[in-house]
């Protein structure tokens, strides 16, 4: 097995793992914030959606680089 295949697989796997952990932490804290201050739900929702977009960008980038490594372009 080539090290490029291993490296590409690790990139894709850790990108997905990091996004899952990040989403879990983000929304657990979002729900904690709503439980503490229900009147701030609108403000917290907007901020959590921005955070979600930033968190979800990571696996897309890691999948792209992983595929590039797998097919030997990099």
Task: Describe this structure as you would to a colleague.
By secondary structure, the chain is an all-alpha fold. The chain is built from two helices and no strands. It is elongated. The record marks 56 as: Reversibly protonated during proton transport.
Defining traits:
elongated; F1FO ATP Synthase; mainly alpha; 74 residues; ATP_synth_F0_csu_DDCD_BS
Query: Total number of β-strand segments?
Result: 0
What's the quaternary structure here? single chain
Class per helix and strand makeup: mainly alpha
N-to-C span: 17 Å
Q: Biggest sheet, in brief? A: none
The fraction of residues in strands falls at under 5%
What is the molecular shape?
A: elongated
**Radius of gyration over all CA atoms, rounded:** 17 Å
CATH level-1 class: Mainly Alpha
- Helicity, as a percent range: over 70%
Total helical elements: 2
CATH architecture level-2 label: Up-down Bundle
Provide the succession of SSEs.
HH
| CATH superfamily caption | F1F0 ATP synthase subunit C
- For this structure, the CATH topology is F1FO ATP Synthase
Q: Note poorly predicted spans.
A: none
Number of domains: 1
- Give average pLDDT, whole number: 90
Write the layout of secondary structure elements.
Elements: H1 3-36, H2 41-70
Helix pairs in contact: 1-2
Membrane topology: Multi-pass membrane protein
Domain V-ATPase proteolipid subunit C-like: 6-68
Transmembrane segments: 49-73
Overview in brief:
The protein has 74 residues and is mainly alpha-helical.
